[in-house]
Amino acid sequence: MLLPARLFAGGPLGKGGQGLAWIHLADEVAAIRFLLENPNARGAYNLTSPNPISSAKFFGTAARLLRRPYWLPVPAFTLRLAWVKCPPCSWTVSTSIPPACRNWASPFAFQSWKPP
User: Fold this and answer.
1) For 39-98, where are the alpha helices, taking DSSP H only?
2) What are the sequence ranges of the domains in the chain?
3) Which of 96, 109, 98 is nearest to 26 (CA)?
């Protein structure tokens, strides 16, 4: 995901509003420990922050941290041409945290994206 920024061609994908799921390492470790120690936790869990960030914010931050420009937007129609089989839902912002994780006794320590 960082290759375009490393090649000085970073920019928003389409309008940049697509949601990207992320999770802080400390939250992921805490969630995995909880799942391993809780016998009632069964099945598949999607470990992501409850608040996705926009692709524009993510790639803008990546470009800033890599000390690269963030200037070359990729038009939405070229993305659709490149990924014809891509489902329409991938172009919208959505949360992906399952209801089971919302009921944990310990909430996420890092719910908002705060880059260094």
Assistant:
1) 55-65, 76-82
2) 3-74
3) 109
> The whole model's pTM is what?
0.67
- One digit per residue, the tens of pLDDT, for the chain of length 116 reads 678 788 887 788 778 888 888 888 998 998 888 889 888 888 888 888 878 888 888 888 888 888 998 888 877 777 667 666 655 545 555 556 555 666 665 677 887 777 76
Look at residues 105, 102, 110, 107 and name the one whose alpha carbon lies nearest to residue 45: 102
Tokens (6 digits) for 116: 């260094």
How large is the C-alpha radius of gyration of the chain? Answer: 17
Q: Which of 72, 53, 51, 58 is nearest to 2 (CA)?
A: 58
Beta bridge partners of residue 74, listed in sequence order: 13
Per the listing, tokens 């399952």 go with: 98
The HSE-up count of residue 6 (CA atoms within 13 Å, CB side) is 3
